[in-house]
Each structure stands twice: as C-alpha cells, then as structure tokens.
Amino acid sequence: MKGKKPIYVSAEMNTTMEKLWGYTQEPDIHTEWDARFTEISYLEKKEGEPQKFLYKTKIGFGLEIAGEGESIGEIRKETGERISSLKFWTDNKLSLIQIGRGYWKYTPRKEHIHFETQYDYDTRFGRIGNVIDFYMFRPLLGWATAWSFDALKLWLEKGLHPRLLIRRTMTYWLVCFLFAFVWMYQGIVPKLVFTHSEEVKMLSVIIGSTEYSIFVLKIIGLLEIIFGVLWLLPFPKRKVFVVHIFMLIALTIAAGFTNVASFTEPFNPITLNVLLMGLSIVGYINSTNLPSSKNCKRKRKG
To answer: Do 152 and 212 fall within a single domain?
Structure first.
C-alpha cells in the first residue's frame, strides 16, 4: 500500500551499554518488557551463522502465533556503537506478518545511550491485509513498541518492573473508566433524560426558581457528561484527581445544605462521594511513572 512507512521508535536510556544490551538481548529478560512477545528462545548457535531464535505471541482466546528469526550483533569499536540486525518470519496463517526485517541500534552519548529500532514487514491476505495493516495493525504495533521502550526505560532507570507498571496502568485506567461512567450516567439519566424531581428540588433551594432550575440542571448535565468524557482522554490526570476530591467535598457540603435528610437515605451523597474520593486517591497513587508511547520519538529527525 502506498505511503506505508517502517516502524521507528527511539528513546534515551540513562544506563550503561552492557546493561541495556543484556536487557534487550537476553530472551528471558527481553520478554519481561516487550509487549510484542510472550516467549523468545534461542536455538543452538553454529559458528559463523546468525543467532537463530523462536518466538511466540499470545493473541487471546487460547491462540498464539509462533515464528522464527535470526539476529546478528555488531560492535563498532571506533565509536562504541552497537547494532543488532534481525530477520523474522512465520508460516502461521493467523499472523498478518509474513516476513519482516529490522535492527536495534545502541549509540553511546555523553550521559545516556540512544536506543532505537526500525523494522518493516510484508503482510498476508493481499489487499485486505494491506488495508488492515495500514489503518489498524501497524499503528497498534508502533504504539506497542514505543510503550515497551518506555517500560524498559522505567525498569532500567527507576527499578520499576514491567509487571508492576502493567498493574499500575490497569488500575489507573480502571479508575478513569469508572469515573467516566459515573459522571456520564449522572449527567444523562437524572438530568437530561428524566430530570429527576429531587435534583430539581435541591437546585431550587439555591436558585429560588423551579422553572429556571430545570434549565440550569440541563446545563449541569451537559457539563457532567463533558467531565466524564475527560476521564477517557489520554493525558496525565494526577492533578485532576486532586481537583476531583475537592469537587466531591464541595458537592457533599452542597447536598447537606440543600437537603440534609438525603444523608439518611440508602446510597446517599456521603457514601457515594466518600467512595469516589477513595477511588481518586487510588488513581492519584497509581498516576506516576506510567509507561507512555508519547515519551518516545516515533519519527527520525529530518
């Protein structure tokens, strides 16, 4: 397909060359941080031949894709630069990738190692395979490569194991999805769709007009929907969690001011808001040192 570009990812690693080389060349360590592979095993190396290996990738539902590959490492003594060239292929008909090739490059700089990869591949399934690759698979694979590079960086520089980072990321996004659901539901159901009488009554105490309260309630509903959608957007939300806690405190006080009897009802504002504040704290704790593909460069300079 025209316009198809190789996948390129680079990152600056504040570590030693030997440590980075080991974390990327040892199969058991490699699969710990690389989201693209489930298992890599080296075959016995014969003198004068490339290092051959087998790889497996689980794709869910008990299915996996297995393939083969070979790599050659090169050290340029004059610059200290290292390059690992590789070729990989599979006969598995489930795999969109038929055969691919690429490299890893390790370039020493003053205070860090510039680590980069570039690879490309041929696809199966003719034109349909090209379309799926261009619009879905290639962007996903590029994202997974960049995410994995950042996970490796956090492991090398801060000692945070990728399994911990995955749990932290899942917890963070679970909290975000729950908040998105709660706020969008609160905006749509009791405000825009049904205009709940208790909501109107509580707002009328503050505004003093039932008719005007209905209009304001619709506006609040729209704002709550927007706030819910905000939780789904991919940007750092550490400060948003703090703002959210103060918002919930203010809403709890407002609920008590307008209808203190609501605090005695089942699933009342206190129990709901305290629960949401607790989730905000969980989200806040898990919002630091999250791997992100945005932390890596995806295009070459120039």
So the answer is: no
Residues whose CB is less than 8 angstroms from the CB of residue 75 and which lie 6 or more positions away in sequence, other chains included = 81, 82
Cα separation, 97 vs 119, whole angstroms: 12
Overall residue count recorded for the chain in this entry: 302
Strand-pair category, 63-76 with 81-89: antiparallel
Q: What is the mean pLDDT of the chain?
A: 92
Q: pTM of the full predicted structure?
A: 0.87
Q: How far apart are the C-alpha atoms of 140 and 7, rounded to whole Å?
A: 10
Q: Which domain holds residue 146?
A: 7-158
pLDDT mean over 212-239: 92
Residue for token pair 């694979």:
141
Write the pLDDT tens digit of every residue in 115-132.
Answer: 999 999 999 999 999 999
Backbone angles phi, psi at 101, to 5 degrees: -155, 150
Strands (E), the chain: 7-13, 39-42, 51-60, 63-76, 81-89, 97-108, 113-123
Q: Assess whether 106 and 138 both reside in one domain.
A: yes
Q: Is residue 182 part of a domain?
A: yes
What the block records as the tokens of 35 is 């989201």
| Cα 180 to Cα 61, 155, 188, 230, distances in angstroms | 28, 30, 12, 7
The CATH code of the domain that includes 13 is 3.30.530.20
